[in-house]
Specification:
The chain is of the alpha/beta class. The chain contains 15 helices and 5 strands. It has a 5-stranded parallel sheet, covered by helices on one side. Helix 10 crosses helix 12 (about 245-270), helix 10 (about 210-225) packs across helix 15 (about 315-330) and helix 12 (about 245-270) runs antiparallel to helix 14.
Length: about 325
């Protein structure tokens, strides 16, 4: 990203950050919280760049030494925290933040530390960061990027300015798909529905054979759950346990779209209101095999499964329950 103007959505957050830069009221620590792929990292990167832009305005000039070295990844006043393990450890914080925070910035106003996946810090790492947050040098700015900031210690949260990033409007995602990814309007609408307000998710899906494969797998799983015997359904659930997380989430997201479309078709009898128009015949068949009340039961079960999986619930038990709910509510 070259400037805030290049970022899709989040205008209120961007305006607040620009106002802080313009008025010299930048906080020492920020939490950018929200779903994956909605723009948190893009906003954080642009904010980090503009803080040390030599022009000193609320948009980066993209021409000064600070901006150019930032884009090249060689800006000595910027630290992007990385981690090799599943969680961010106390060693990561000590070597990448605590060891560098006491030295003033070179030829710039701020030292900026961005922590992607900040909610993956273990307790020891959070306590190590907290020591710096309690008495931060005046030149330090922390940008903590999270998908669930409530995993952070309350003592960290209370010392941060919190901005919550919401999923983008469907129209924004469609426009991005048409203008930047050069998709046709029908394809853009389909991908936008699956992207759930996430430009990052949109990019990963377009042109990906995996997306088509996941969709096809989800439709087959749903239909087979309706018509198979109980032993086969349990066997399918056992197979789902082996899915990688991105595939499992993709299948469940497709299930949501299937049930949504079946409900809409059941209520209206008109296929033009179905999101997945390329799968119209399959949606009709699924709709015919369920009563409206049963489709709502499946939708509720899907919601519960997604929520419990996000809290590290047992994949096998949850998928068994879901597939059995689909079977039990089919004709």
């Amino acid at each position: 990203m070259n400037a805030f103007t290049d970022i899709v959505g989040h205008k209120n957050i961007i305006n607040a950050l620009k106002h802080a830069v313009k008025n010299g009221s930048t906080a020492h620590a920020y939490i950018f919280d929200g779903p994956v792929g909605v723009g948190k990292k893009s906003v954080a990167a642009t904010f980090a760049k503009v803080l040390n832009c030599e022009r000193g305005e609320s948009e980066p000039c993209n021409r000064c030494k600070s901006c150019l070295t930032f884009d090249a990844g060689t800006n000595v006043n910027y630290y992007g925290i990385t981690h090799e393990k599943k969680n961010i450890t106390v060693g990561d914080i000590r070597t990448q933040i605590n060891a560098n925070v006491s030295y003033p910035p070179q030829n710039g106003k701020y030292k900026v530390f961005t922590v992607p996946d900040a909610d993956l810090m273990n307790i020891e790492a959070q306590n190590a960061l907290l020591k710096t947050l309690e008495e931060p040098p005046e030149y330090v700015v922390f940008l903590l990027i999270c998908t669930n900031y409530k995993r952070l210690l309350h003592t960290i949260i209370s010392r941060c300015m919190i901005y919550k990033f919401m999923p983008l409007a469907s129209s924004d995602v469609i426009n991005y798909a048409v203008e930047n990814l050069k998709l046709g309007s029908e394809s853009a609408s389909l991908y936008a529905r699956y992207a759930s307000g996430s430009i990052g998710k949109l990019k990963s899906m377009t042109g990906s054979e995996e997306f088509s494969e996941i969709r096809s797998r989800a439709f087959n799983l749903f239909s087979n759950s309706e018509t198979s015997d109980i032993v086969t359904v349990y066997s399918m659930a056992e197979d789902m346990k082996k899915y990688e997380s991105n595939i499992l989430n993709g299948v469940l997201d497709t299930f949501f779209s299937i049930v949504r479309d079946a409900i809409v078709y059941k209520q209206t009898g008109n296929i033009k209101y179905v999101m997945q128009s390329d799968m119209a015949n399959e949606i009709k068949e699924i709709s015919f095999r369920h009563e409206l009340e049963g489709l709502f039961v499946i939708f509720d079960e899907l919601y519960k499964v997604k929520k419990r999986l996000s809290a590290n619930g047992d994949v096998a038990l949850l998928t068994e329950s879901l597939l059995m709910t689909i079977k039990e509510n089919s004709k």
